[in-house]
Amino acid sequence: MPSLGENGGKEMTELAHALHRPVEAVELDREIRKLAWPAIAEMVLHTCVWTVDTAMVGRLGAEALSAVGLGGNVYSTCAWISAAIGVGVQAMVARAVGAEDAEEAGFSAGQGLLAGFVLGALLAVCTVVAAPWVYRLAGFARDVSGPGSDYMRIVGAGALFFIPLQVGSAILRGSGDTRTPLYITMVMNSLNLVGDYVLIFGVLGFPALGVQGAAIATLAAHVIGGILTFRAVFRKNGAVHLRARHVLRIDGPTLRSLIRLGLPAAAEEGLMNGSRVASSFIIAGLGTAAFAANQVTVAAESLSFMPGYGFAVAAGILVGHNLGAGKAGRAVQVGYRALRHSLAVMGSVAVAFFLAPRLIIGVFTSDPAVVQVASVCLRIAAFEQVFIGMTDTLCGSLRGAGDTRTALVITAAGTWLVRMPLVILAIYVFRLGLPAVWVITCVDWAVRSALAARHFRAGRWQTARVH
Predict the structure, then answer these.
(1) Is the pTM for the entire model greater than 0.85?
(2) How far is the C-alpha of 408 from the C-alpha of 412, rounded, in Å?
(3) Pick from 31, 166, 437, 440: CA 20 to 30 A from residue 327's CA?
(4) Residue ranges per domain, the chain?
């Protein structure tokens, strides 16, 4: 099928007619919702592992909140960069499942899981070694760097399970199963919630471990989640038919394809999360109260990313399945239908952020100075929600097609050509406060959404190579 770029007028006309066919639209919407809602709920729960840590540790004071905030940012950045191999795994598995090639799907899954174990082990070692240096570079005093280093080391040990867990979830999603990762995450969060309460504050006869307690609870959740995920991907009735030989035998062509798809995804995660870490170091110069306000705003806003993420997952899976089955036109329709759902939900989130910022921020901290600044920032963040939904959903479709390079270029343009230069100017040149950083973030997402929409319309992603 010719791409939209080659025959734009005809393709767009056909697409417009297809989107207005009631039966076709209802069928697509049903498929999208079926895959999206478990993915949304899963990511909400994943985010809650860190959000619950932030909310409970926030009761210990600004120093403890800063310790967990910086350590959590640095570690999660490294973890999600490593877990980006799952983007390639999901695209390859989805395309193979769509083509009904069970053996190819199994090797793609197995080689991805092998890579996940290796990356997890490397990250665990690096975190233990680097933890103290992170706080020295940020210039924090001992009352923050001491507990922060302990937090990073304990949580980082769980990378050996967390990275393969994310790869395993990508395998399940690529096969069309978004519910099993959700159920596993529900178990993880239950453990983390109980563990946080018991170990941070010292109840039921346990000692009050504070920041260390939060780290131990998160570590335990990741270990149990990893074990449950391994069990799920190796079940005999799974659509992928993963076997031990798929993991233990190195398959050169499959690994090369994973690297080709995974490296841009990892670079994208590195650029996006790296900009957040760099911003954290810059914001740390504004003082402990401003840094804590930024952390609770990020924690509150992180839940809003989930609808965009869920519809991006659904779009990516269905785009991969349809391209694998030779249905490129239907893959285009999937992207647009998923976008409509995403914008509707993210628009509702924007209204909540604008109308009730203090109520939301109050969940995370009771410090009056922190609440005041964070509420202003969250109200500003309301204006970026629609742009986030558009960017995530369209880029999810591109990744599902195997076009991970374009998503990388879009992220690089927004974060490092727009956001970071403007943040540096705002803080160091114009001496503006934290709200200015959030205004700049809105500009960043607006630029990214425009680039994503333009590339999706062009249609070159339909011919992206996966294997």
Answers:
(1) no
(2) 6
(3) 166
(4) 8-463
